[in-house]
Design goal:
Radius of gyration of chain A: 21 Å
Largest sheet of chain B: 7 strands, mixed
Distance between the termini of chain B: 29 Å
Order of helices and strands of chain A: HHHHEE
Oligomer: heterodimer
Structural class of chain A: alpha+beta
Largest sheet of chain A: 2 strands, antiparallel
Strand content of chain B: 15-25%
Structural class of chain B: alpha/beta
Radius of gyration of chain B: 23 Å
Helix content of chain B: 10-25%
Order of helices and strands of chain B: EHEHEEEHEEEEHEEEHEHEHEEEEEEHH
CATH superfamily of the largest domain in chain B: FAD/NAD(P)-binding domain
Distance between the termini of chain A: 56 Å
Shape of chain A: elongated
Number of strands of chain B: 20
Helix content of chain A: 40-55%
CATH topology of the largest domain in chain B: FAD/NAD(P)-binding domain
Number of helices of chain B: 9
Largest interface: A-B, 36 and 34 residues
Number of domains of chain B: 3
């Protein structure tokens, strides 16, 4: 067995990878940032899935994803900036968005 | 990026349009200039504006060449993402302590390809879009940024290391730390610019609380072709607004929020935005509620009349309250200041608060300059030497001295540069070193 294995000694700053040095100096991710990141992944997944089913306006997306419209708008515009979403026609004063290539 | 040298003829604090102009005017006279900006790019507020009044020139199109000129000038050293920590009088000159903030990348090696941005998995509200758009934890500040170099915000980082792995020039360095550097200069120009009154200062207007109550700088970004939405839409739900209201004096001429003065430019930027909205959205209703219109500059009155002729509604009235009704629409309660003096409630899709201008920087703890009651730098010789501060050898330009429009900021920057040049000639008793070199 491994009874003789010594616990790993804490890494010195020299032995750490550069990203580990930054993470340690920052004290890791803040609670707020962790929550934002997790929530963001969930919202992006929901928006992508809803648009896969067909083009939608922001209120339609919000209703389908069970999100607040302002929250939907911000994340949709972030996905647009990433190049994942494109504008379609207008429908009753709202722009219809679809997945790029769909 | 070149090392900060031990001596310069002048330090210019702030890389907005006034600071850039002051640096250029001094450099063209042969002086060696250190131009410091606390942000990762120079350009200040102007580079983020959509168009300028009354000419409707594209703001970044006329600002960017000046930014590039300063960045490439032989006698200007650009020092972005750097704070001025202390300026102390040392004889006729000054000892300056700077804190160079870490970009977490080797600036010389960064080619501005943006691969790090694409790899970064998190989106954060972008300061350049006043929160309406997004950026990554590592990013190039914006499309017109100078320098076109990345910067990492460690507080937004998820520590995945993807940016480092994908960088084609291996320029990312997570181990960087702030650097303290000392230099000496013969004169200082303070061009630290403006801020706008906080959105929450007038809670009855719902700024910062109601999604469709916007700041004028947010509207600048929304109207910009490289803005967060690519067109004019409501932040709440992406609706194309059909009825938009401007609330004038929403952060100026108001003792209750400590801003008793007129911010000078709000009437004109609101008229400009209102006119452009008429161009951008077919048939849109744009109403400007005001106490009185102050169109103070050359061609401004004509511009105001043009906006009215093109359908912008100008209503004399004081807005008392803005509330959200169904579907994120807004109900604006206005006391009309016309013949009837009625109080009415009008429904709008979107409201822009014409916020006032306040000083962006307080010198306390950095340099021993006096600040006036209004928060801007004190002008001891307001009439005859308007760029003079309370310290000999330190001059001010642009909105550091008080609210003003772009042409006035540029004129004052030239005046500050000339005053600094005269001070340098007088205290040194000779022309700048570079001028001698050029003469040979």
């Amino acid at each position: 067995m491994t009874d003789n294995v010594q616990p790993e000694a804490p890494k010195t700053e020299k032995a750490k990878r550069p990203i580990e040095i930054l993470r340690d100096r920052q004290g890791g991710m803040s609670k707020e940032l962790k929550e934002r990141f997790t929530e963001q992944q969930r919202i992006y997944k929901a928006i992508r899935a809803a648009l896969k089913a067909g083009p939608k306006t922001v209120p339609q997306l919000a209703a389908e994803c069970k999100l607040e419209p302002p929250q939907t708008m911000w994340h949709l515009m972030a996905l647009r900036r990433h190049g994942e979403i494109v504008e379609g026609a207008e429908e009753n004063d709202y722009v219809v968005y679809r997945l790029k290539g769909a | 990026m070149p090392e900060i040298r031990s001596r310069y003829d002048a330090l210019v604090i702030g890389g907005g349009i006034a600071g850039i102009q002051a640096a250029l005017d001094l450099a063209e006279q042969g002086f060696q200039i250190l131009l410091v900006d606390k942000y990762p790019s120079i350009g200040g507020v102007m580079v983020g504006l959509n168009k300028v009044f009354p000419t409707l020139d594209c703001s970044s199109c006329i600002c960017t060449p000046r930014m590039a000129e300063a960045a490439h000038h032989d006698r200007i050293q650009l020092q972005t993402y750097t704070e001025v920590a202390a300026v102390r009088k040392d004889g006729a000159g000054f000892e300056v302590q700077l804190t160079v903030k870490p970009r977490y990348m080797n600036e010389d090696a960064c080619i501005g390809c943006g691969e790090c941005e694409l790899a970064c998995p998190i989106d954060i509200p972008h300061e350049f879009d006043y929160g309406l758009g997004s950026r990554k934890a590592i990013y190039i500040p914006h499309g017109n940024a100078i320098p076109q170099k990345g910067v990492l915000m460690p507080e937004d980082c998820v520590f995945c290391g993807k940016c480092e792995r994908i960088c084609p020039t291996h320029c990312i360095d997570f181990t960087q730390e702030p650097q303290s550097v000392t230099t000496s200069v013969g004169a200082v120009v303070v061009a630290t610019g403006l801020d706008i009154t906080p959105m929450g200062k007038k809670p009855e207007y719902g700024g910062g609380r109601l999604a469709n109550v916007m700041s004028p700088l947010q509207m600048e970004r929304v109207q910009s072709s490289n803005g967060p939405y690519g067109r004019v839409l409501r932040p709440a739900d992406g609706k194309i607004p059909r009825s938009i209201a401007y609330v004038q004096c929403a952060g100026s001429r108001d003792r209750s929020i400590g801003v008793p003065y007129c911010s000078r430019v709000c009437c004109m930027y609101a008229i400009k935005q209102a006119l452009l909205l008429r161009h951008y959205i077919h048939g849109v209703d744009v109403t400007l509620y005001h106490m009185d219109i102050r169109a103070f500059g050359k061609g401004y009155e004509q511009f105001y009349r043009r906006a009215m002729a093109e359908g912008v509604k100008i209503v004399k009235g004081k807005v008392g309250r803005i509330t959200e009704v169904d579907n994120y629409d807004l109900l604006v309660r206005v006391e009309l200041l016309d013949a009837d003096d009625r109080v009415v409630e009008r429904r709008h899709d979107l409201v822009v608060l014409a916020q006032g201008i306040v000083a962006a920087w307080n010198p306390k703890g950095v340099i021993d300059l006096s600040v006036a009651e209004d928060g801007f730098l004190q002008r001891p010789q307001a009439k005859l030497n308007p760029s003079y501060t309370t310290m000999e050898g330190v001059f001010m330009a642009g909105a550091a001295a008080g609210p003003k429009d772009i042409p006035d900021a540029i004129v004052e920057a030239g005046e500050a540069a000339m005053s600094a040049a005269i001070y340098l000639y007088r205290t040194r008793g000779r022309a700048p070193a570079a001028a001698h070199v050029m003469a040979h």
